[in-house]
Design a protein that fits this description.
This is Knr4/Smi1-like domain-containing protein. This protein is α+β, with helices and mostly antiparallel strands. It has helices at about 10-20, 30-40, 50-55, 110-120, 170-180; strands at about 120-125, 130-135, 145-150, 155. It is globular, with a radius of gyration of 16 Å.
Length: about 190
């Protein structure tokens, strides 16, 4: 997983997974990507950065179940605390945390929980029922995809033991495309 330089082989697999065939019309463009990054004090990890700049900024096809959100959007059921999100502050986790089952959770856990939802990640989209996929943009797990739900958070990728897929945005997309039962049925 290279989060600083796009792999030349990845654009074709990403286009195929998202069924993008609009010549880049749905892409955000480099100027808008640079503006977003400057506004938030971050640099998006590759290959997601190139994906939104050159291919598409959001898609109804592809992962997750309800589609990929544009880079600056949040799921419709997110609530009204959008103003508290700070992408430049580090995402606080480096290992799975199931707070609903954590006997060591304390009053300090609420503060960390707020950071899990609001620091250092963009929301890629939702599988519904408060199951949101995040791409970490700041902190030790920069470039990794996490599933954050109302009961816990887990990193995506074989190295973490929760799936056979590769870590990162491209690995998450490839895993979804390979395991989508209706992928070739249409």
């Amino acid at each position: 997983m290279n989060i600083d330089q796009a792999d030349p082989a990845e654009p074709a697999s990403l286009r195929a997974a998202f069924d993008i065939d609009d010549g880049g019309e749905s892409a955000l463009g480099w100027e808008a990507v640079h503006a977003f990054e400057a506004d938030h004090g971050i640099v998006l990890p590759e290959p997601y950065r190139t994906f939104v700049a050159e291919m598409t900024d959001g898609s109804c096809s592809g992962p997750p179940d309800y589609g990929l959100l544009p880079v600056a959007d949040l799921p419709g059921d997110w609530g009204d605390d959008e103003r508290d999100r700070d992408l430049s502050k580090p995402f606080p986790l480096t290992e799975a945390w199931m707070w609903e089952e954590d006997p060591d959770a304390s009053d300090d856990s609420d503060e960390v929980l707020e950071q899990v939802y609001n620091h250092g990640s963009i929301v890629l989209g939702t599988d519904g029922c408060a199951m949101n996929w995040h791409l970490v943009v700041t902190g030790p797990h920069r470039g990794h995809v996490w599933l954050i739900t109302d009961v816990g958070a887990v990193p995506f990728g074989a190295q973490f033991g929760f799936t056979t897929g590769e870590s990162g945005f491209a690995g998450w997309v490839r895993h979804w495309a390979a395991n989508k039962p209706w992928h070739d049925a249409a």
